[in-house]
């Protein structure tokens, strides 16, 4: 069967089952070991029987809820491929906007080791991308040793000057040592309905933030005064679309003399809440 026809069949099957049609392309590219350009060039080629069989196995697994990223082993993020596993949250495109904001604010500034901190290492998408884009050292913390192991594998492949600490939120950090605090903490409300692809295959430790989804923001801010320097530069949190006002109020209450704000994502939804010192250079 020609690749184009098989791809069309798979896309129809996925859409009928309520999955994304684009998943068929990702799976087929993985089977053929080509990129999207290569796939488009080869659409009129015949699919070999063993390739068709492997493709069918991947399709069935995805139809049964296994994320495409777990099947192909990686997720593209900010122009780089990050290895993922069931031990880590799959990086989302929305988090690239957190990277864009932080790098835009800090570009050209110099920081010492331990001054830029990412809480919630996961795959390493945030900490490694910040280190690579800024050319600055980054420290990151995660409570899961399995997640840290995945992030270290990504560091070996991608590079980036990152120090990994295992522990609960800010606990491993020294007093008054941090100037930039970045986090995409678990923020999903405990009774929120998720797709089976997410609920059954991604770590709940990285998804759920208590009854109202705000538990980890409260804990981060409660301990932030201990670890932040008096001249801290920036706090930036990714948030759920309905959490902007509440998290901003938490920041204002904790740091009443600094500028706070809410930024919307490309879809017009609240995505980032930040606190930034007014007397720091742009």
UniProtKB/TrEMBL annotation:
One of its GO terms (biological process) is methylation. Gene3D superfamilies: DNA helicase RuvA subunit, C-terminal domain (1.10.8.10), Vaccinia Virus protein VP39 (3.40.50.150). Residues 112-194 form the Methyltransferase small domain. S-adenosyl-L-methionine binds at residues 120-124, 142, 184. Keywords: Methyltransferase, S-adenosyl-L-methionine, Transferase. Substrate binds at residues 184-187. Residues 7-73 form the Release factor glutamine methyltransferase N-terminal domain. GO terms for molecular function: nucleic acid binding; peptide chain release factor N(5)-glutamine methyltransferase activity. SUPFAM superfamilies: S-adenosyl-L-methionine-dependent methyltransferases. It catalyses: L-glutaminyl-[peptide chain release factor] + S-adenosyl-L-methionine = N(5)-methyl-L-glutaminyl-[peptide chain release factor] + S-adenosyl-L-homocysteine + H(+). InterPro entries: DNA_methylase_N6_adenine_CS, HemK-like, N5-glutamine_MTase, PrmC_N, RF_methyltr_PrmC, SAM-dependent_MTases_sf, Small_mtfrase_dom. Its EC number is 2.1.1.297. It comes from the Bacteria. The keyword Methyltransferase applies. Methylates the class 1 translation termination release factors RF1/PrfA and RF2/PrfB on the glutamine residue of the universally conserved GGQ motif. Belongs to the protein N5-glutamine methyltransferase family. PrmC subfamily. NCBIfam families: hemK_fam, RF_mod_PrmC. This is Release factor glutamine methyltransferase. The gene is prmC.
